[in-house]
Write a structure and sequence with these properties.
- This protein is α/β, with parallel strands linked by helices.
- It folds into 2 domains: 3-72 and 315-418, Aspartate Aminotransferase, domain 1 (Alpha-Beta Complex), CATH 3.90.1150; 77-313, Aspartate Aminotransferase, domain 2.
- It is built from 14 helices and 13 strands.
- The strands form 3 sheets. Strands 4-10-9-8-7-5-6 form a 7-stranded mixed beta sheet, with helices on both faces. A 4-stranded mixed beta sheet has the order 1-2-3-13.
- Helix 6 (168-171) links the parallel strand 5 and strand 6 (173-176).
- The longest helix has 27 residues, at 392-418.
- It is globular and about 60 Å long.
- The two termini are 30 Å apart.
- The protein binds pyridoxal-5'-phosphate.
- Pyridoxal-5'-phosphate (PLP) is lined by residues 122-124, 127, 150-152, 201, 236, 238-239, 263.
Length: 422
């Protein structure tokens, strides 16, 4: 056994057992294949604040935040108190808990431009419902989306390559490059009279690539084209919600969608997602059979109310951005000092690091592996998330680890140049 396999011995053991009874062992985006084997744990057992612990007892400062869900920190006492009190007296009942009304009122009151809300569990549930509603309302079938954008794992937007999924639903999605106004105009011209909606994220967060903010004329163009076509503009805010603007990320960019989807951070890890929409869609929405066995459980909705209170109490977006700015400036300057063009892209509260001249992301993998070896969990291929549980002290520890990691990479640089396959 080498040092890294000793460090993750139990993770390895569980993974070998899993491979016998679970296809792929760990499937989807959590597959160890997306991380750097030997440097990251496969199984985590507990977490608190901004720290996660794996089954072998290794601890990490975490910058993935349960893929964004933990905005006020793992085990936030106030969120847990309110959710667990409800669990103790009954969470999933035959009829909704009254908190559903209070949460809908609160979100309609706080998310700009929205008049109604319906709840489910996953982001994919809501992006699917939003596009379906747009189709039903317009009687049209084409959905316009950005290349490399992620809207979930249901068939219409899935990246599954099996030919059987190249169904009508997938053929009706027309893609353009995020921010490419001429490309979008061309799509509208090509599909005129057939377009139900445009679904976009508030900024572009493709996997494996630097993140991209919207250009100033992007959303105004989307809105103009949608208005002319009679198509709906859906803002998929599932990844970014509450980290760009408490009133919805569209407010940050002065955009005016008719539907907004949220999930992830909205209940700090308790399963909950929401679709919000404007008045003109309410009648069609009320005619939809919107349901799921677990969709109306009360505890996650109480957690969502508590999460909103805690975000406010802990300083909200300005605090997230202050922490994110320290991380960005620290990583970029430490990278430069070690001779690397390390860039942090995207919003300050949702950063992602890439290296100049690193087409196959080998530097990314080496850096994230070196950080994981030093107790910092950052993902080489997926954007990171800042949480309000993070402190300046945690950032100091993180940047110390980064100094060591860049120095290690500088020392290894010659072998990278010879090593990585192109
Ligand atoms: C922008 C966006 N939309 C939709 C989804 C799907 O959400 P879920 O994984 O909860 O189904 C995600 C998940 O990462 C997302 O980032």
């Amino acid at each position: 056994m080498n040092a890294s396999s000793e460090r993750f011995a139990k993770s390895q053991e569980y993974f070998e057992r899993a491979a016998r009874v679970i296809p792929g062992g760990i499937y989807g985006s959590k597959s160890p294949g997306f991380l750097v084997p030997g440097h990251f744990p496969y199984y985590l057992s507990s977490a608190s604040g901004c720290r996660i612990k794996d089954v072998d007892g290794n601890e990490f400062i975490d910058y993935l935040c349960g893929y964004g869900s933990q905005i006020v920190g793992y085990g936030n006492p106030e969120v847990d108190r309110r959710a667990l009190a409800q669990i103790a007296v009954g969470d999933l009942l035959n009829q909704p808990h009254p908190v559903m009304v209070e949460l809908a009122e609160r979100l309609v009151g706080s998310v700009s431009g929205m008049d109604w809300a319906v709840f489910s569990k996953n982001g994919s549930d809501m992006t699917t419902l939003a596009t379906s509603l747009a189709m039903a309302e317009t009687g049209k079938q084409i959905v316009i989306a950005a290349e490399d954008a992620y809207h979930g794992a249901t068939n219409w937007c899935s990246s599954n390559v099996f030919p059987v999924f190249a169904s009508e639903e997938q053929r009706n999605i027309a893609y353009f490059q995020y921010n490419d106004i001429a490309g979008l105009e061309a799509l509208f011209a090509r599909h005129r009279g057939k377009i139900a909606c445009v679904i976009l994220t508030p900024y572009h967060h493709p996997t494996f690539k630097p993140q991209l903010m919207p250009s100033p004329d992007f959303f105004p163009t989307v809105e103009r084209l949608c208005a002319t076509e009679g198509a709906y503009f859906i803002m998929d805010d599932i990844r970014a919600n509450y980290r760009l603007d408490a009133a919805g990320s569209h407010v940050r960019f002065d955009a005016h969608p008719q539907m907004v989807t949220m999930g992830k951070a909205m209940a700090n890890g308790y399963p909950l997602s929401v679709l919000l929409g404007t008045k003109d869609l309410a009648v069609t929405a009320s005619g939809f059979f919107i349901t799921g066995t677990y969709w109306m459980s009360g505890a996650p909705m109480l957690a969502a109310m508590a999460t909103l209170d805690e975000i406010e109490r802990l300083g909200g977006v300005p605090r997230l951005e202050k922490l994110g700015a320290i991380l960005k400036e620290g990583l970029e300057s430490l990278g430069a000092a070690a001779g690397f063009g390390a860039r942090v892209s995207g919003p300050l509260a949702i950063p992602y690091l890439t290296f100049d001249e690193d087409p196959n992301l080998y530097f990314n993998q080496r850096f994230c592996a070196a950080m994981a070896d030093r107790g910092i969990f950052i993902h080489p291929h997926h954007n990171w998330f800042i949480s309000l549980a993070l402190t300046e002290k945690d950032l100091e520890i993180t940047l110390d680890a980064a100094r060591g990691s860049f120095a290690q990479m500088a020392a290894e640089r010659q072998s990278f140049r010879a090593g990585p396959p192109r």
